[in-house]
Amino acid sequence: MYNFPDAINSDLGLIQTVVALSIYTIVTSITPGPNNMMVLASGVNFGIRRTVPHVLGISLGFAAMVIVVGMGLGAVFDLYPMLNAVLRWAGAAYLVYLAYKIARSGTPDNSDSKAGKPLGFLGAAAFQWVNPKAWVMALGAVAAYLPPHPSVVSVLAMATLMALLNAPCVGIWASFGVGLRSFLTKPAQLKLFNISMATLLVASLYPIVVRS
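The chain above was modelled as a monomer; its predicted structure follows.
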């Protein structure tokens, strides 16, 4: 497995590493997960413009996680397994809360409805720290593509690349949501959609429950 080198020993090795990490990031970012389900619902309920802060919060919050994990936080989980369990269950509780908010979202014709509002930049960034899929992505990338004691430059390079690739992948789901707006013009249709998204979000907790 290629690693981000602390010193560039060969152009070929660096290119192979970047390509492999890029494929890993695109595949893990674009496949269904809590972030994408929430962004899809936000695109339907609030449109692309009001969903942009959510998308940016996801990507930059995830980049911050990669940096912290790359600088050694992953080893802390090995020393204190209980911390991992606490984060997973905190994430589960927050996912249930977000599912509840999605279920109560407004309608496309009333995006300012008091029944709901889009998740903002800070909320989306903070959510990554209790998002099970984000932890799997960050820990997997650091373990596979960084050396045991990486330099700050190599960690920052990885985090930057992953953030730049993650944003458009997540943004595609927001675009899907915007595309669905024209079909969900009746309150009953939108209500059914929001409940379905909330149900899928809660269903994403299954891996957490099984691992416990």
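The two ends are 30 Å apart (CA to CA).
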